[in-house]
Amino acid sequence: MTRRGTSHLALALALALSAAAAAHADDSAPIRIRAKATPEKPTIGSYIRYEVDVTAPAGTEVVVAQPSERIGDLDIIDFGSEPPAETTDGAVTFRRWWKLVAWSTGAHTIESPEVSYRQPGAELATVPPVTVTVDVASVLADADPAKADIRDIKPPKPIPVDWRPYYAIASAVAAIALLAYLLRLLIARRRRGIETPPPPPAHVVALAALDALRARRLPEEGAFKEYYSALTDIVRGYLEGRYHVRAPEMTTEEFLVASSRDGRLNVVHRRLLGEFLGESDLVKFARHVPSLADSERAYGAARRFVDETAERPVETVGGR
Predict the structure, then answer these.
(1) Are 80 and 47 within one domain?
(2) Which of 38, 89, 138, 267 has a CA that sits 20 to 30 A from residue 152's CA?
(3) Same domain, 269 and 190
């Protein structure tokens, strides 16, 4: 299953697994994790499949953290999960996988993402991570010396076609079509005599929604799940209006990885958004019960994110 087939927000993956555990270095933990990377000796720039298996007793809630950009010093190219598999002793194992790539040679140590768990009536705890090592080799290490040697110069390339006159003609036609469209639009608007006001900015809508949500005082009434759901809906709606992405339809890790690739958000705002959405996922999917202070901190994080990423008006020189 790829990340497009993941049905829930995998940053806070909440599972109620049944039965006992698989092998792990810490035999005292109620859940155990096992990790592996294949191939063990990849070449630089090639794909590495990194898998983490989690096994837990019945009734245990498990949350596997989702890195947003890298695992160790390896870049994340893709990720996903596989359906739980029942072992011979009745335990259930869930597998998460990542497609990684290394851009430097030598030994690279990969530490498994944080795995948290909570047994019925107990507090949230974490399992010590496990590490695997891959030895990344150079692409030229095993190359044929004759092929790796300096080759003769290539023959001259043919003179390319000068496309600039064609570009100029196409630009002129496009400009004329645009002017005709704008003129037609202006005439139609004058005939109607009605000017359609522009929609309010995304941050204005989000801040008004945050004020309305706070006025409902849901945390004081114990409605934490409804409160966090409404809070994340406001933030995701703001992301859609501000950055023109279908944020409400994307999982948390999908949006974080996408925003890290195209530079929509800087590192500080991406980390703030990841922590806020991760805490919200714990409340909505892992049955975590926050305190009033936690809900107030989440509200402050959402408002700070909107304030700091709001679209600023363009300043003109000389008052023009």
Answers:
(1) yes
(2) 138
(3) no
